[in-house]
Amino acid sequence: MKVTEHIKNAKGKTLISFEILPPLKGKKIKNLYDVLDPLMEFKPPFIDVTYHREEYLYKIRPSGYYEKTSIRKRPGTVGICAAIKYRYGVDAVPHLICGGFTVEETENALIDLNYLGINNILALRGDARKFERNFVPTAGGHNYAIDMVKQLKSMNDGQYLDHSIVNGENTDFCIGVAGYPEKHFEAPNMKSDFYWLKEKIKAGADYIVTQMFFDNQKYFDFVDLCRANGINVPIIPGLKPITRAKQMTSIPRTFFIDMPDDLVDAVRQCKDQDAVKEVGIEWCIQQSKELKAKGAPCLHYYTMGNVETFRRIAATVA
Ligand code: FAD
Q: Cα 219–22–129 angle (5° rounding)?
């Protein structure tokens, strides 16, 4: 079922969904099931699986020169989505990224997903490669998420890259895109970032999942901004608790997100990491409760494999 249908069928009840990372290359899929099995009691209607662009590694050769090799450390997103669907009977949402793929490779991945009956996609540009300051598009690939949204929409209309294909199968992908209540870090200002978000919706996106935030007011203001500007698709809040003190500086640096004063003060008073984790979990629970009370369609938790933390949060909020 599509993410938007799950939301519609919930008739105003707030759903709970999880986002997971594929295991590191060489690890068993059981590692993933160990994360997901305990979360199934919360009956997530869908589970997102992230995608990770290849990274460059530099190996020193006997000659003393460095050799640059490219590796993908967490492959397997499509296979994992199929495994989730098969094992749990739960809809899986693969994140597809522009970086690292030509448009034809993207089309082929979408054809595989269509054959597997996986019809939800979160269409993203993707992060920059590790050790690269900026996102570098792949030759022959998309530059921005909106280009992938347009490709998905074309396939839903039965149009493939090879225009000689007539009567091509109409896929039926439900298209999600990312939204940034505190603006995307590269955007010159909120107005510009919002312009491009609106373009993604106009191009055919069906719902938005937000970047994490720690101040619910940012999400409420963002929803108000969307509604006032004719964006009426579901806006799913993405949530992640603080688990370590150093995240108080690393998260704002990486994602350009502001930390609320009360959270900063509470973490500052913690004596050790366990205390920080407790503060983070409690903050996330309170955020979740308020979002639920104010009618958020779904609470989407970025688990990062942190199963016990999310079991506690979901058990309190569900
Ligand atoms: P876009 O929508 O393409 O926007 C990127 C920037 O360009 C923005 O500043 C925007 O304002 C601007 N812009 C957009 N379109 C245009 C245009 N046509 N012309 C000029 N400027 C434009 N990353 C991963 O690598 N893997 C994941 O699995 C993953 N999952 C994510 C899940 C969620 C819910 C979120 C919020 C983010 C996720 N990311 C993931 C991170 C994401 O890939 C990065 O934030 C990336 O930098 C931007 O992706 P986007 O899809 O928002 O890009």
A: 75
Q: Which pair of structure tokens corresponds to residue 190? A: 């909120």
Beta partners for residue 179, in sequence order: 210
Q: Please name which of 5, 37, 1, 3 lies closest in space to residue 20, comparing C-alpha atoms.
A: 37
Closest CA to 285 of 1, 16, 5: 16
pTM of the full structure: 0.97
Question: Looking at ligand 1, which atom is closest to the CA of residue 184?
Answer: 9
Question: What are 212-240's pLDDT values in tens digits?
Answer: 999 999 999 999 999 999 999 999 999 99
Integer angstrom CA distances of residue 258 from 139, 291, 300: 35, 18, 20
Handedness of CA 81, 76, 109, 198 (dihedral sign): positive
Type of residue found at 117: G
Task: Give the contacts of 191 (CB within 8 A, at least 6 positions apart).
Answer: none
CB atoms within 10 A of CB 278: 15
103-124: pLDDT as tens digits: 999 999 999 999 999 999 999 9
Q: How far is the CA of 126 from the centre of ligand 1 (A)?
A: 6
Atom of ligand 1 nearest to the CA of 178: 36
Ligand 1: list residues with CB < 6 Å. 50-51, 53, 95, 97, 124-127, 144-146, 178, 184, 186-187, 192-193, 196, 209, 211, 238
Given the structure tokens 């598009």, which residue do they identify? 137
Q: How far is the CA of 125 from the centre of ligand 1 (A)?
A: 5
Provide the H-helix boundaries in 10-51. 30-36
Strand partners, 46: 91
Q: Which atom belonging to ligand 1 lies closest to the Cα atom of 199?
A: 15
Residue with tokens 């998309």: 142
**Reported CATH class of domain 3-317:** alpha beta
Domain segments of the chain: what residues? 3-317
